[in-house]
């Protein structure tokens, strides 16, 4: 199969869809891999590294799309890429369709096959291709939140770990999934007091077992959230409903209950955000302030640490890429039910129920109906 790895063109996105090690495995299996020149530079992988493992370096993104049958990316295509996507293409990337009707409609009109990393699902309900980026984002949420708590950037002026004689900062984590657990682990490591909320008691029991005593678990309810936002310095939103929009757990009016300089980090921004006031931001302009509350809502947080993120992503995507390349998408999805759950759009039809529900579409939503 002819496989293309374009350069990511989303704002400040330095990751790349495949490492040279991944390309080596593909060429070893007699596939042809086209890599756009400088696509890997931001992650520390250079054209010569790809050439050395058998990739063909091409100059433009247009060449990558025109020469390839399958496109391996990190982030969803943006508007200027839409015209490049044709019916014969298989796109394998993060899409997060439920948060963007414009993107969903564009991919329906392209009639390409769109397989979303974030909905590939193992038999135990875990999301193997989302997990590594959730791990990165959960850890980064604390790193970024701690920075924006500093007074020069309008934060409360709180050191999360405190010092002898001064109590540590307080961190509220909404959601005890992968993001929430990683955020709690990082915050606890800094010495902060952590409260983690979830409605899943099984997850709360797990967190209670593995975390130190200064990480406290509580059942998530609107009442509990309203109580905790009054005295916590940093709030992390890490809730996820597979393939669907995130629920809005903190409303605009609730911001008035927070102390000035509180920082909120919405890791669920790719799925529409779990704060009512969430607006996607970029690494270039990562924050904004509403009611004296600092919002950090960067939609591609792991893009700030592209070497780590690209390595972690290729580790988990490569087996599926090889399966798709070796068997074709239909046989691959027939043979691997986890991969089949990644199918979101197939030749002009939306086949993932949560996306249909997100936009109140009919079950047979076709391009002709748009």
From TrEMBL:
Alphabetic keyword roster: NAD, Oxidoreductase
EC numbers, comma separated: 1.4.1.1
Domain (Alanine dehydrogenase/pyridine nucleotide transhydrogenase NAD(H)-binding): residue spans on this chain: 149-297
Keyword Oxidoreductase among UniProt keywords: yes
Pfam families in UniProt: AlaDh_PNT_C, AlaDh_PNT_N
Example of a GO MF term: alanine dehydrogenase activity
Reaction(s) catalysed by this chain's protein: L-alanine + NAD(+) + H2O = pyruvate + NH4(+) + NADH + H(+)
Entry keyword Nucleotidyltransferase: no
Domain Alanine dehydrogenase/pyridine nucleotide transhydrogenase N-terminal, chain residue ranges per copy: 4-137
Similarity section: Belongs to the AlaDH/PNT family.
Record-given protein name: Alanine dehydrogenase
């Amino acid at each position: 199969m002819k496989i293309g790895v374009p350069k990511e063109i989303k704002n400040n996105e330095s990751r790349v869809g495949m490492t040279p090690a991944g390309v080596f495995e593909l060429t070893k299996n007699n596939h042809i891999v086209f890599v756009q020149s400088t696509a890997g530079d931001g992650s520390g992988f250079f054209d010569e590294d790809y050439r050395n493992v058998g990739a063909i370096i091409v100059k433009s993104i247009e060449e990558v799309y025109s020469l390839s049958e399958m496109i391996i990316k990190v982030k969803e295509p943006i508007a200027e890429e839409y015209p490049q996507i044709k019916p014969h293409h298989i796109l394998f990337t993060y899409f997060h369709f439920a948060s963007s009707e414009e993107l969903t409609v564009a991919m329906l009109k392209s009639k390409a096959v769109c397989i979303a990393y974030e909905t590939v699902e193992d038999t135990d309900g875990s999301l193997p291709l989302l997990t590594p980026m959730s791990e990165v984002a959960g850890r980064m949420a604390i790193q970024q939140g701690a920075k924006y708590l500093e007074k020069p950037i309008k934060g409360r002026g709180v050191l999360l770990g405190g010092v002898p004689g001064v109590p540590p900062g307080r961190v509220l984590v909404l959601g005890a999934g992968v993001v929430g657990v990683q955020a709690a682990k990082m915050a606890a490591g800094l010495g902060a007091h952590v409260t983690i909320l979830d409605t899943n008691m099984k997850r709360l029991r797990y967190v209670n077992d593995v975390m130190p005593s200064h990480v406290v678990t509580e059942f998530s309810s609107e009442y509990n959230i309203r109580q905790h936002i009054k005295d916590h310095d940093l709030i992390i939103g890490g809730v996820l409903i597979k393939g669907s929009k995130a629920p809005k757990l903190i409303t605009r009016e609730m911001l008035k209950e927070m102390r000035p300089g509180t920082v909120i980090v919405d890791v669920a921004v790719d799925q529409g955000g779990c704060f009512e006031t969430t607006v996607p931001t970029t690494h270039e302009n990562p924050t904004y302030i509403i009611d004296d509350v600092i919002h950090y809502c960067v939609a591609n947080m792991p893009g700030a640490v592209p070497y780590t993120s690209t390595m972690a992503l290729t580790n988990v995507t490569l087996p599926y890429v090889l399966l798709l390349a070796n068997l074709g998408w239909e046989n691959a999805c027939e043979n691997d039910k986890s991969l089949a759950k990644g199918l979101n759009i197939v030749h002009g039809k939306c086949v993932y129920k949560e996306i249909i529900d997100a936009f109140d579409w009919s079950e047979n939503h076709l391009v002709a109906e748009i």
